[in-house]
Amino acid sequence: MKFSDEFEQRFAEMVPHYPTKRSALVPTLLYAQDEVGFLSDDVIAEIAARLDLTELEVRNVISYYSMLTTKPRGKFNVQVCTNISCMVRGGEEILHHCATKLGIGHKHTTADGLFTLEEVECIGACSWAPAAQVNYDFHENLTPEKMDGILDNYKKKAMQ
Amino acid sequence: MADLTLTVDGKKIAAPAGTLLIEACKNVGIEVPSFCYYPNLSLQGACRMCLVKVEKMPKLQTACTTVVGEGMVVTSDSDEIRQARKSMVEMLLGNHPLDCPVCDAGGECELQDMTFSYGAAESKFMEAKNHKDEQQWSPVVFFDRPRCILCYRCVRVCGEAMDVWALGVQNRGVSSVIAPNKQDHLECEECGMCIDICPVGALTSGAYRYKTRPWEMKHVGTICTHCGDGCKTTLGVRRSDTGMEIVRGDNRDKSGTNSDFLCIKGRYGFDFANHEYRLTQPLIRKDGKLSPATWEEAFELIGKKFAEVRDRDGGQAIGVIGSTRTTNEESYLLSKFARLVLKTNNVDHHSTADFPAFAAALRDKPEATASMADVFAAPAILLIGNDPTEQHPLLAYQIRNNVRLHRSRLYVVNSRPIKLRRQATVFAQVSEDNGEAAFVDFLSKNNPAPEPLGMSGTTTGVLEKLRETLRSVKDLLVVFGSEIQGISVTSLIAALPQAKFICLADYANSRGAADMGLYPDLLPGYHAIAGRSPLHEEWGVPDTAGLPTSEMFTAAKENKLKALYVVGSNPIGRLNLNPFGFSKAFLVVQDMFLTETAAIADVVLPAANAYEKTGTFTNTCGDLQLVKKAGDVSGTKADFEVIVRIADAMGFDIKKLIPFGGGMHADMGQSRGAQSGEADRHAVWLEMHGLEPKLSPLDPMAILDEIQRLVPGYDVSRMNLLAGNSEHTRLDKTGAAVPQQPGPILPANDTLFTSGTLGRYSRALNSVIEAHEIKPAEVAAD
Amino acid sequence: MADLVSHPDEVRVVSRRFGQGAASLERYLELDGYKAVQKALAMEPDAIINEVKNSALRGRGGAGFSTGMKWSFVPKQSAKPKYVLCNGDESEPGTCKDRLIFEHDPHAVIEGVIIAGLAVGATSGYIYIRGEYRYLSVIMQKAIRDAYAKGFLGKNIFGSGRDFEVYWHGGAGAYEVGEESALMESLEGKRGIPRIRPPFPAVVGLWGGPTVINNAETLASVPHIILGGADWYAKLGPPKNGGTRLFCLSGNLAKPGVYELPMGYSLKKMIYEVGGGIPDGRELKAVVPGGSSTPCLTSDEIDINMDFDSVAKAGSMLGSGGVVVVDDAQCIVKFALRTMKFYQHESCGWCIPCREGTDWLKKTLQRFHAGGGLKKDIDNMYYLSENMLGRTFCPLGDAAAMPTMGFIKKFRQEFEDHLDGRPCPYQKEGAIEQLPVMA
Ligand SMILES: Cc1cc2nc3c(=O)[nH]c(=O)nc-3n(C[C@H](O)[C@H](O)[C@H](O)COP(=O)(O)O)c2cc1C
Ligand code: SF4
Ligand code: FES
What we know:
The complex is a heterotrimer. Helices cover 46% and strands 11% of the residues of chain A. By secondary structure, chain A is an alpha+beta fold. Chain A has a 4-stranded mixed β-sheet, covered by helices on one side. Chain A is elongated. Chain B contains 27 helices and 31 strands. In chain B, the strands form 8 sheets. A 7-stranded mixed β-sheet of chain B has the order 15-14-27-26-25-16-17, sandwiched between helices. Helices cover 41% and strands 12% of the residues of chain C. In chain C, a hairpin with an 8-residue loop joins strand 8 and strand 9. Chain C starts with 24 loop residues before the first helix and ends in a 23-residue tail after the last helix. In chain C, the strands form 3 sheets. A 5-stranded mixed β-sheet of chain C has the order 6-5-11-8-9, covered by helices on one side. A 4-stranded parallel β-sheet of chain C has the order 3-2-1-4, sandwiched between helices. In chain C, strands 7-10 form a two-stranded antiparallel ribbon. The interface between A and C is large, with 55 and 66 residues. The site of iron/sulfur cluster (SF4) has 14 residues of chain B, from helix 4.
């Protein structure tokens, strides 16, 4: 299993921050996932070995956190918040709009592998609702039209 | 620690500081319900069933996590509390499949009991239940998520108590699920503790599921027939076409020295008894072929032949090989039968430990042997050789949990990196070339550590420091394997005069076979043939020492041995040689299966196994326990009866062999009275005091009387024994003779999943071996 | 990233440096940065604790416990190292304030962590930031690096002879991890399952050492208290509710946003003046005053002051400062359903009442809102919530039960309007209940 130099550097820096090795587990998993796309069996085995954990322990942790996944996802993970503050301002319509536009449902990926759609819980953008995150980028005060533009931009980005 | 006083439900009670409220209540008979709380496992506070009211606390508190406090005022039952508990059950039942009628746990399910107690049977829940298909995690472990109530007992017992950590919790919220370590299956020690501890039917046993309802079985707590640790296993038996069939093994009866523990063999390894290859009819060789015969024919033939050889060629022309799996009564009887009836000292068995040397070294050292219970309590333990995780699972469990719960210090000296090193304060890896014995030598003398002793990081410094520690540590318990024999045993015991010892032998009654004198030159109690003892006087023993197995074989080859009687042993298979091919010796084999030895016999007698008879076993520590009859296979006979019948067929006066008919002649009807069906208390009392009339020559209790009278160290409380407890026998008053020509000590080399001949015929064990892709030895030993 | 707003009634303490580039250390120093910690270095630990106690600062994470008091519970002597843990998991629906602090004033959090450390005798601190806030982790990492470079962190900080380490830590999506003991578990690399208490974190916390856990806003307030003095801070709010608070106004408002208002500010004014009132000529139906866990207030219950004690008196909680305004076009049953969907999704699953109760409530509300409700469901839901309340392993169960009981109690009629197979009276044209599920 090979990770990028950036990952390695970050990992090396992070581990000594804690009195126990496994403390670095959650952020390490997230960075590994960012790089590989999902937490594959190989990634799990590698991280377990590095942190002196069993693969079972690593899987127990992965399955607890909603951002971690052991299944491949699209290049852009469109996460639309429909929690209360967003809901009362049209969050569900944004989600529905994305679903129609992309032709996929919750946690599904477009055939071209570009987009995965996910209905998520509050992402901390309540005062700027409705909001969504594409990967780690926030998009706020959304309208269906604005959302169209955002998705189109990502698509363009992928084409370049 | 001083007791604190508190008030529970208006009752003043006392409990030591640090006691959990739930335990304090239990100790005075106030039951606080719980699912997740389990003694000696980490606290969870998850099921919320144990909620109680503690004065001055605004909310209900969990009794399982609350520690008693001085002056605490507690209410364990009130409308509020009952409602809280009822609602927990209601919520659990919301997603519970309620398939009790087909659930293995039906009738012995904590959720059913709790529903019954709190009256939460009326369902308010109307939504679709969360479903998940049942999964098979191993040949013997099945998991049904919808039934699981997430008490996490399985996860904890596997990790904390077993140090296996094969179970985890995955996902969160209502999707939480118990998960096995290999995603869709388990890779573990297959102990099945998770099944035993599961309060519901979420984890079920592949060896038992869907076989019967719990209330249709009779549950018999007896001693496991596999290794030398002496766990109590509860066998569930049910009537079948061929007798009483054992359908389940578990640890329902937690009264044994193993308390919560049971390994794969004790749990599932009973099925050899029901194997289709089980012999159920005597076989007599006619025209070169073994053909079915009646017991009467067989006894007559054997009686005639044995008497003939004895009278013609003398007792020394007959050999007897005993078993490490028969009861003490049977081994003693066989030993006596050989000397008295066959007039031979050619008696031997498969030794896996040097008990004679051990007994000799402990002569006049009272209190120097340790019991299995001591292993859980000793503040410091030295383990030399052996791999208890594989060969002595209970011992390993006791050590592990002593370290975990009592912070005992463990010192491991082994040539291999055995799993128990994980619990060790010091792990000294020594050379594979007799490193353990060399260590003992080093320990007993003041010489510097020889170079090759230490391996992989174990330096001379470490060894020297360890020696210093061991010499000074108080209350040390020393456990050693067959790596330590002969003079090393003596040195070890001399080197650590403050310690208690356990000598490890491999089979269920290896220790009993040794104690009962299945040796060519030792009588029961390690009395030398040439010596003097009350036993000599009562028995009348041939004066010259007999032949060990290997020499019996040589004698057979040379046609000097004319008859051999093999009881529950497979020397041909074990030693992989057949000296009888050309000899004309008359071979009688008594066994459950047509082993390599039985296959070449002249007469084969179908034997009952330990689960089908009554008697006692002595575990490797010397703990004596009662073996109780559970199953029954028609056509077979207990070795005890067979020996008696052969003696009878030889025309021997059975009264001289079995002291039956003694005791007190009581009026057996006296205590029964009008309430027929109740226990015959008078008879129980008589039995406890060894006074019950042994009316039959086939009653092993009659021989137990003699054993208790004549074998030093066995004069333990009969009452305690009959009550199902273990009684520690002693070795300090034995004959202390060391064999003149000690036979070889050959370890059984069984693993966690194998068990000699028994294992070969256990489907459950074999299916696990297959799943784990471990190859057992080609030919199993006994 | 997120837009900033302002209102004349605002009293800017924690948000003083928002929008001024204070994420850069130079700029932060120009704006009185790291002065408080230098002052604190010269103070006795007890003096710091007393100052914070006297300031009447109460935890901004939700429970509103006196911060100074919490610090005083940390034992003076400890065999194990002590820690400060900044809770930046911010996941309570309706709450988006810590995000602004991390974005605009990360050094204030670092400074607060150091001061807390000096007060309790800890020599290291961790700043836990929820995983979704990746861009904030980047900002925070840079801030920490810059502070180290200047000698404000590490060995011999500010030449004082004292050492202090600060580390950043990232989560990966789990609301429950905001609960203090689950937060520690998560930081230790485990599933976010809360711990049994006692022992409390102040005595046995991270890796077994005594630990102070505070919300990011709480810690970011501390430097201002040290510099401005306890008296000044305490007097900003009503008695026992010192200072100001970042209120996250969201929902059906004309001018939603995060506003810093003094403690005890009128809720009514907050909605109608600061937040610009309800747009589109709509009326107020309900307001959730302190994040989704707090029971809602109806339109005739809003004449209250927003401080911990007043809101508690009104039967709700000030909570995390998330004020969610709901207009009369919204369906309360649906609102309750969405709330419960959240708790069902976020329950860690450890204990029976929370795990099973939230699932049961969610399913019932789902059926109910879809038109399959029965009259007895209303009582059943209330019964269930009542039986969860106060009996779960951690307060998440309460957080799910309390608002549900509030909705049922205060809007029973609206629940009944859904009965008998009637469609939701608030159903919007073309609204979706279920997402298209593709193969
Ligand atoms: C389910 C649950 C979630 C919580 N989430 C957060 C959170 O995201 N951020 C936070 O600061 N406190 C949260 N808390 C409160 C913390 O447990 C803790 O009280 C707080 O961090 C203490 O800091 P304070 O005293 O400064 O408020 C949560 C509590 C519960 C029960
Ligand atoms: S499998 Fe059994 S023991 Fe394990 S959590 Fe479920 S119910 Fe409890
Ligand atoms: S026994 Fe106390 S919570 Fe389960």
